[in-house]
Amino acid sequence: MQASTSKKKRFRPGELAPITGVYIVNHGMRHRESHEVVIIRGEQLPVCRACKLNVSYEILRPISHITHDWDFSGPHNLIVRPKQQDFRDTRMFRRVNVQWPLTLELSSGSDAGVIQGHSTDLSAGGIGAIIRTKLSPQYQTVLVNICINMGAESLAFSGYLRYQAGQRYGFEFTNVGTGERAAIRRLMETQLHRQRPFPAE
User: Fold this and answer.
1) CB–CB of 155/111 below 8 Å?
2) pLDDT score of 61
3) 46-92 tens-digit pLDDT
4) H-helix segments, the chain
5) CA–CA separation, 179 vs 176, rounded Å?
6) What is the pTM of this model?
């Protein structure tokens, strides 16, 4: 008799856990070894902060959860009402809304030159922008020089194009040093402080 060669089903971020149990998590980018986690039936499987959507889940063994037991929870809690998460805009870093002029320096192909735009959001990992000039997809692999203008101050980074929707673009910073990342975080904290509502008198 031949041994069974059937593979365990792998579940992906965004899917709902079919049963409560211990799952094996496999990271696609291999930034860490596979590990075990407990997931409750009906929970939406999350993304990894490093691998993003490139992670999978396998059921290792089912277990019981007290909220799924009739004697402890009753009929109402047995109904799964999962909270859906939007994975279209998953980011590794916290971001804040910012409205600053910026300049893109393109140094490759027919698009070479300087393009003006303005920022929409900023994080320690990248920046969103409104740009009226259509950029070539080649900048997903070719570096773009990004200069953020804040009045008397400015910050300059290199980055890659990571998404485009109409006139909205997103760029991921590359080779950002510790000092530069700290400067970004200070700017973000300043911006968040300005956006907080004043207490009522």
Assistant:
1) no
2) 93
3) 888 888 888 999 999 998 877 666 676 655 554 555 555 444 444 44
4) 70-73, 178-195
5) 8
6) 0.49
Q: Determine which of 66-75, 119-128, 149-158 has the lowest per-residue pLDDT on average.
A: 66-75
Sequence-distant (≥ 6) Cβ neighbours of residue 35 within 8 angstroms: 24, 25
**Contact residues for 66 (Cβ-Cβ < 8 A; gap 6+):** 72, 73
Collapsing DSSP states into helix, strand and coil, what is residue 44? Answer: strand
Q: How many CB atoms lie within 10 A of CB 55?
A: 21
Using DSSP bridges, classify how beta strands 95-97 and 113-123 pair: parallel, antiparallel or unpaired. antiparallel
- Confirm if 124 and 184 have CB atoms less than 8 A apart: yes
Contacts 24+ apart (CB under 8 A), 93-97: 93/123, 93/124, 93/125, 93/126, 94/123, 94/124, 94/188, 95/121, 95/122, 95/123, 95/128, 95/188, 96/121, 96/122, 96/123, 96/188, 96/191, 96/192, 96/195, 97/121, 97/191, 97/195
Question: What sign does the CA torsion over 111, 112, 116, 119 have?
Answer: positive
Which among 76, 128, 120, 72 is positioned nearest to 98, based on CA atoms?
Answer: 120
**How many whole angstroms separate alpha carbon 31 and alpha carbon 199?**
44
**Tokens standing for residue 144:** 């773009």
- Cα–Cα distance measured from residue 47 to residue 36, given in angstroms and rounded to the nearest whole number: 15
